[in-house]
């Protein structure tokens, strides 16, 4: 069985697979048991990871996995191109592996243009045209990141509560902050759709922990929670076949 891992800045997702079939999947924070819910009896023959975590955390993950499964860990990074998908970055190693793996999953499904919106710790937007050319993208602060910076970098912005999909002008600090985040993301969402239209791109795909929030805010997109793992699985299978 293959163990596939998407290790983000906030959470870690894992999938156990045989061939294309998913045997088990899980999701957890880094401070929990790293593979909570993992079926103890399974025989893992290969481990492949896509990560954007800091180097010390990546090393800790490697040590944990090698100690637990006694096999080496294969990391997959962003590439300049694969299977007709071409990265716009001059130095692809600088691109987050999650962005490349998400784009690759979307590309091999239809081999048509698409936009991937990954609403995780940070929010990324990547545009790919019908020829498989990555046009480029955006990196924006994520929902928790925006709230945290308002809380910590301004002394008198005091608020509680959770994100609301309401974007009406607020009349309390809490409303101004939470509705403000919604208002900003709604604007960004509209812009994704108009930009895609201008580029002749029809398909919008959304993934990440805040995908549901963006859909609530009116983003018209296909929700694909495991896009990064899907791309990683495909790439890993291709490399194995070489
Ligand atoms: N149960 C949850 N725990 C943590 N974050 C959650 C949860 N549910 C939704 N979220 C939202 O998901 C975001 C994190 O998304 P996600 O788990 O996709 O990120 P990640 O993959 O860890 O990070 P990265 O963006 O670095 O890949 C948080 O900012 C938060 O707003
Ligand atoms: C932007 C994030 C944090 C999104 O997870 C990740 O893709 C990343 O760390 N990227 C590195 C910078 C870049 O992609 O250009
Ligand atoms: K992610």
Give the key terms.
single chain, binds potassium ion, kinase, binds pantothenoic acid, alpha/beta, globular, 36% helix, 5-stranded mixed beta sheet, Nucleotidyltransferase, domain 5, cytoplasm, Type_III_PanK, 12 strands, 242 residues, binds adenosine-5'-triphosphate, 26% strand, pantothenate kinase activity
How would you concisely characterize the structure shown here?
The protein has 242 residues and is of the alpha/beta class. 36% of the residues lie in helices and 26% in strands.
CATH class of the largest domain: Alpha Beta
Could you say what the CATH architecture of the largest domain is? 2-Layer Sandwich
Structural class computed from helices and strand pairing: alpha/beta
Number of strands: 12
What's the number of domains? 2
Morphology call: globular
Note the run of SSEs as H and E: EEEEHEEEHEEEHHEHEH
Distance between the termini: 18 Å
Mean residue pLDDT: 95
Q: CATH superfamily of the largest domain, called what? A: ATPase, nucleotide binding domain
Provide the CATH topology of the largest domain: Nucleotidyltransferase, domain 5
β-strand percent reads 25-35%
Q: Catalogue the ligands.
A: adenosine-5'-triphosphate, pantothenoic acid, potassium ion
Query: Major sheet: order of its strands?
Result: 3-2-1-4-5
Question: What does the radius of gyration come to?
Answer: 19 Å
